[in-house]
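Hi all, posting the design record for the shared folder.

TITLE: backbone redesign
STEP: 1 of 1
STRUCTURE INPUT:
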């Protein structure tokens, strides 16, 4: 599988298919090359576009250089853009939508499309626990990734606890 090296030395595994203008598909937090909606979408888009899909850092075949920072994921996108000539379009889903939007600030992006970015705004927005960032950071630092996922999905996103296979 091809890979690029991000600024901090992280290996980022990717697939490139199709012909035409380039679009990079950016998955949500729990998806990657082998799991999630982008594989089916890529199969349709590659009829008219060059499609780049990748495993975000710490997922699938990509590396996981510490410490994590959102800016490192933007640098991963930048490294992927280096495999294409000229400007590229970005399409992101969920947290990938946020990454795509943030990438447009510093990278030469021709078009941006986002689906379900996890913004909680307005009078009906879910109220987050005040210490949610500290709790997540602590769980991850302690190597309790499963507990971090349960906390994120249950206490932050609000997945009903009736879903015992998840929580």
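Okay, here is what came back for every position:
SEQUENCE:
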């Amino acid at each position: 599988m091809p890979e690029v090296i991000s600024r901090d030395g992280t290996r980022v595994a990717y697939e490139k298919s199709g012909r035409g203008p380039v679009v990079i598909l950016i998955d949500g937090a729990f998806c990657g090359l082998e799991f999630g909606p982008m594989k089916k979408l890529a199969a349709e888009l590659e009829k008219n576009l060059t499609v780049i899909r990748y495993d975000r850092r710490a997922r699938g075949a990509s590396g996981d250089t510490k410490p994590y920072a959102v800016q490192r994921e933007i640098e991963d996108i930048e490294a992927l853009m280096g495999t294409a000539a000229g400007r590229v379009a970005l399409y992101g889903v969920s947290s990938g939508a946020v990454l795509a939007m943030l990438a447009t600030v510093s990278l030469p992006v021709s078009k941006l499309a986002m689906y379900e970015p996890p913004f909680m705004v307005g009078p009906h927005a879910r109220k987050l626990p005040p210490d949610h960032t500290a709790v997540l950071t602590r769980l991850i630092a302690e190597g309790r990734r499963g507990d971090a996922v349960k906390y994120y999905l249950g206490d932050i996103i609000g997945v009903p606890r009736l879903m015992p296979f998840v929580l």
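COMMENT: The radius of gyration is 17 Å.
Let me know if anyone wants the other runs.
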